[in-house]
Inverse folding.
């Protein structure tokens, strides 16, 4: 089930955010994610976030964060990755938006392939000022 983030979800979502970032972006020092943990956690309640709750587990297994039409990220617990949760979250948002954009690290090949498979196209190349890593800007239109 996909639903809006609730205040009681913040700790679970924050842990998924940290764990997923460290594992998916092993080319960025873990200290970077850890040093941003508290700030990001505080921002969750102010953001547009939808969580995926497992039907049998009733636990949050993933979430998508938005800032208007910008996808801040899709995060899925590593135990249930490649089970369609990311796609369900993305489809949920696509039903509500006509245009979406995002940034993805060039070294995160798995994510790039996922977004391309879901209809996103690379629109530009940048450098993330915070990490110094190259990234792609990608966009999708209905």
């Amino acid at each position: 089930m996909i639903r809006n983030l609730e205040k009681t979800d913040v700790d679970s979502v924050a842990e998924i955010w940290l764990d997923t970032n460290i594992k998916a972006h092993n080319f960025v020092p873990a200290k970077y994610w850890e040093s941003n943990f508290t700030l990001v956690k505080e921002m969750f309640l102010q953001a547009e976030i939808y969580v995926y709750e497992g039907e049998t587990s009733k636990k949050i297994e993933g979430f998508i964060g938005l800032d208007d039409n910008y996808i801040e990220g899709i995060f899925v617990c590593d135990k249930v990755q490649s089970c369609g949760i990311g796609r369900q979250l993305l489809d949920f948002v696509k039903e509500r938006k006509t245009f979406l954009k995002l940034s993805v690290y060039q070294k995160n090949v798995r994510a790039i392939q996922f977004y391309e498979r879901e209809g996103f196209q690379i629109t530009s190349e940048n450098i993330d000022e915070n990490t110094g890593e190259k990234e792609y800007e990608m966009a999708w239109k209905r």
Q: What stands out?
A: The chain is about 35% helix and 30% strand. The first strand starts at residue 2 and ends at 4. Helices lie at 10-24, 30-43, 85-94, 109-117. The first helix runs from residue 10 to 24.
